[in-house]
Amino acid sequence: MMAYKSINFRNLPFGFCHFLLTILNSRRIEKCVTITYFFNKAPHTMPDPIERAADIIASAKRAVALTGAGISVASGIPPFRGKGGLWEKIDPMKVAHIDAFLDDPETVWNVLIKEMKTVLDKARPNPGHTGLADLERLGILGTVITQNVDGLHQKAGNSDVIEFHGSFAWQRCLDCNRRIETSRVDLAQIPPHCRCGGILRPDCVFFGEMIPPEALDRSQHMSATCEVMMVIGTSAMVQPAAGMPFIAKDNGAFIIEINPEPTPLTSRISNLPLLGGAESIMPRLLQAVRQRLASP
Ligand code: NAD
Ligand code: ZN
């Protein structure tokens, strides 16, 4: 028969509740536990995760952010994976793999790159990006390691941005390697050509290509030496970028994750997952950090 336990956790400290539940679970007691702690109002005992994150961030001097497509969703740029992601409509291996581009640049330009240009031309930084720029101005955040190619961290005001997957702001000639600004490329002919006659490609890392060694080395170094890593808007599915939080954690960093969905990092290494969109979490986090810096 099932033992029924009704436990009112309201008046117990949070850490003790957690300990008690661990013991109950570890003993595999057949139970139906009424955990009133979680459902009754107990503001004096339930720590707000944003307040906890603000405590950590306000006292940090070497914070690093790792960002992914999710931070730019509120700027109108769809992510690859997840709800509303591009991969719901197109097969990544057919359009975003370097072999696909080399086989048929015209199709990849028509299906992916032209569309990206239209979307990225209109995009402006959102409060997720500006929040990170504010953290740099406050002397807390040093480097942003971004998987994004949209340039929005620089537009928001961050001065040290590692573009792990390159930048869409530039195109490169397949033949002579000359670089040309995307805004100056003539799209009358697809695929567009360099003045030498070679085909132009975005200066981004396609699937199947190497990460630029300098970006990889520096990202690994910043990850290994930060005291806090903020992991924002990445599904943590693309390697080697997804390995950076593990490097940080292995070297003692505190991992704060901001994402509306859990990721493979959430249960494994995130110390503090903040569930929600970056554009709504960041302003609240900034306000809480500023309060702490203002009070002596
Ligand atoms: P992803 O597309 O694999 O995952 C997006 C993640 O963002 C998901 O975990 C999702 O839950 C989360 N998310 C959705 N809305 C969010 C919001 N409002 N705030 C915070 N998080 C939100 O992205 P990825 O991990 O960066 O990997 C995809 C690859 O595609 C990257 O390499 C990147 O270069 C490229 N990409 C870049 C852009 C861009 O430059 N903006 C856009 C799409 C894809
Ligand atoms: Zn050329």
Descriptive account of the structure:
The chain has helices at residues 14-26, 36-39, 49-58, 92-95, 98-103, 105-122, 127-137, 152-156, 213-225, 244-250, 278-294, and strands at 3-7, 31-35, 63-67, 141-146, 161-163, 166-173, 179-181, 200-204, 228-232, 254-259, 272-275. Mean pLDDT is 86; it is low at 1-43. Among the domains are: 3-46, no CATH class; 50-77 and 123-165 and 209-294, Rossmann fold (3-Layer(aba) Sandwich). The chain has 296 residues and is of the alpha/beta class. Helix 9 (213-225) packs parallel to helix 10 (244-250). It has 11 helices and 11 strands. Bound molecules: nicotinamide-adenine-dinucleotide and zinc ion.
In helices, the fraction of residues equals 25-40%
Task: Write the H/E string, N to C.
Answer: EHEHHEHHHHEHEEEEHEHEEH
* Low-confidence parts: 1-43
Largest sheet: 6 strands, parallel
Work out the strand percent.
15-25%
> The CATH topology of the domain at 50-77 and 123-165 and 209-294 is what?
Rossmann fold
Look at the helices and sheets and give the structural class.
Answer: alpha/beta
CATH class of the domain at 50-77 and 123-165 and 209-294: Alpha Beta
